[in-house]
Amino acid sequence: MGAGRQRLMRASREKRPGPKARMVRAAARFFDLVQESLLLSHGGSTDSTCSMRGRYAMRIWRLDDAGTLVAAEMARPVAGDGELLLRVRAAGVTPTELKWYPTTHTKAGGKRLGAVPGHEFSGVVEAVAEGANTGWKAGDEVFGMNDWFADGATAEFCVTRPEWVARKPGRSSHAEAATVPIGALTAWQGLMVRANVQRGERVLVHGGSGGVGVFAVQLARHAGARVVTTASRRNLEFLRALGVEEVIDYRSGAFEEKAGQVDVVFDTVGGETLARSWGVLKPGGRMVTIAADVEGTAEERLKRAFFIVEPNGEQLAEIGKLLESGEIRAVVDCAVGMDEAGEAYAGRARGRVGRGKVAVRMDVVD
């Protein structure tokens, strides 16, 4: 098939304008479509004669049948009605994602195989499917977050929805932008929406140097709150530079003895830390937690406090404006190449310092 297509392309380049040239060009395009169909039917298998590196193949990381994250090659996804196809430039790493229910189960509750992790990303619009009337066009730089039951973006291409993305801030690199959506949307939905933080209130953030915490302390400060956070001693100056008023070294004693009374607790830790946090809330104070050990609890106050972040392009656009203005900033723990994604998800990324989030950069092959 490859030789036949080459002959057709040589013929189409000869200076013979008119119907014949148009016919051979159309035939060449037909060969492309047949190759794509064969590649899709073989699932991008490296044993297939159609799995060659080409315009329809891409590299990914996915979970195999044993639940192990492995590098693989498969056909590029195709955007369905109302969707966008993105050329991924970078994806954020959330290691615990590999163990979450949506990674191993479908929405209907069945077993899910071959899930691609990395549900936050930054990239370039490659194609806009019919029905996606949102103003996006090929070449636009965007960042966003996919629904947890959809495939992620630890791949050279991914499919997303227009309402899940926003324009990438011009001053942010793709690696920086890719580490923003999950953490910043979690902080926004927890503090701005659920807790409705007001100017002058005191907010306690547990885990202020983590992937969510770095945005929680910055957005609380942006809202005019007085921010207190727990962290290790080595991150004290780092967090003060983000606008934190008081940093409590959680290893030096009980945080509740130093935090005083607060209006809002934003908890990313759970367990004993969460249990002890109720005691620092003022009357009428609000508790927000994202701790996984709370999911499915029967305790009513914990059910009210717990939530899971959802994709939201409008909120992400507001976050993008804050990034563009310099009011808040992304914190990249380190950035690694695509070949090192497995190490990143295992917590062994080279260059980690324990602040913010790790990003995986994609080396896209055309």
Model description:
With 366 residues, the chain is of the alpha/beta class. The protein has three domains: 2-41; 57-172, Quinone Oxidoreductase, Chain A, domain 1 (Alpha-Beta Complex); 183-305, Rossmann fold, CATH 3.40.50.720. It is 30% helix and 23% strand. The protein has helices at residues 2-13, 19-41, 101-104, 174-178, 181-194, 213-222, 236-241, 256-259, 271-277, 300-305, 313-325, 341-345; strands at residues 57-63, 69-75, 84-92, 120-128, 141-145, 157-160, 165-167, 202-206, 226-231, 246-249, 262-267, 281-289, 332-337, 357-361. The strands form three sheets. Strands 3, 4, 5, 6, 7, 13 and 14 form a seven-stranded mixed sheet that branches. β8, α6 and β9 form a beta-alpha-beta unit. α1 (2-13) runs antiparallel to α2 (19-41) and α5 packs across α6 (213-222). The longest helix is centred in the first third of the chain and has 23 residues, at 19-41. The chain is globular and about 60 Å long. It starts with a helix and ends in a 5-residue tail after the last strand.
